[in-house]
Design a protein that fits this description.
Radius of gyration: 28 Å
Largest sheet: 5 strands, antiparallel
Shape: elongated
Number of domains: 1
Helix content: 25-40%
Order of helices and strands: HHEEHHEEHEEE
Strand order of the largest sheet: 5-4-3-6-7
Number of helices: 5
Length: 254
């Protein structure tokens, strides 16, 4: 009996039939963690790429829209701005940008208006789209970071007519990060776009914390634009002013 039991113990010591299963059980958590981390980083990188492209496309589109008026001058209309913002909204439906973020389009101009004595660089007007930033909790993250100061923004009426009352705000240093300021050429303008997006990780906060993805883009206005105002002929369009926090253009909620 004893020898039989010893024989069984010896055979068990040399038995390797479950080795692969044991190795898999030990390595599975490590493989899953590495796979999840890689997937999360890939998704974050892809989200950054998408947001940067949305900003570039909007700046590019806004730099070339308008309708030809007299003498080859292009007039920019509220309907044109709504069109390009709507294009950004549709383009970004996959990540629900206008629900989980905010888009700010600014016209940085270096021109002399009838009420100026010389050229002045100013943010003449801004148009916005997106639901984020309405509350005090996230206002600092999603509203424009590149106005002249945290408390100075162009009013919703800025640029709506050609009067000094709605001239916007002076921005002599330009717009952008302190070491990467964008300035408009003399007698021209720049479409400056800022996109702020709430990134929601695939696996909660396990690998990457929720964060705001922020990108900017700028394009020089491509045509001989009339910088005096944004036109709004009949039938008038509802302006997507920055006092509105909606996911649709012109204040639309859908």
């Amino acid at each position: 009996m004893l020898s039989s039991r010893l024989q069984r113990l010896r055979s068990l010591r040399s038995d390797t039939s479950g080795l692969a299963l044991m190795e898999f059980a030990f390595t599975f958590p490590i493989i899953m963690a590495m796979g999840g981390y890689g997937t999360e980083l890939s998704f974050l990188a892809l989200s950054n790429l998408r947001v940067s492209q949305y900003a570039l496309n909007l700046a590019d589109n806004a730099s070339r829209v308008g309708v030809q008026a007299n003498a080859g001058v292009t007039q920019l209309r509220e309907s044109d701005l709504n069109d390009v913002l709507q294009g950004t909204r549709r383009e970004s439906d996959l990540i629900k940008l206008t629900t989980n973020g905010r888009v700010i389009l600014s016209s940085l101009e270096n021109v002399s208006q009838p009420y100026d004595t010389d050229r002045v660089q100013r943010i003449h007007w801004q148009r916005c789209l997106g639901m984020k930033g309405a509350s005090g909790a996230d206002a600092a993250d999603y509203n424009s970071h590149y106005d002249p100061s945290p408390t100075v923004h162009p009013s919703p009426a800025a640029g709506s007519d050609a009067t000094a009352a709605n001239k916007g705000v002076d921005a002599p240093a330009g717009m952008g990060e302190p070491t990467q300021k964008v300035n408009a050429y003399q007698n021209s303008g720049v479409m400056f776009v800022e996109v702020n997006y709430q990134y929601r990780p695939l696996f909660g906060s396990l690998f990457v914390n929720p964060q705001v993805i922020r990108y900017t883009a700028s394009f020089i206005v491509r045509d001989n634009r009339d910088f005096s105002r944004i036109y709004n002929p009949t039938p008038t369009a509802t302006a997507s002013t920055c006092d509105r926090y909606t996911k649709g253009v012109g204040g639309a909620t859908t």
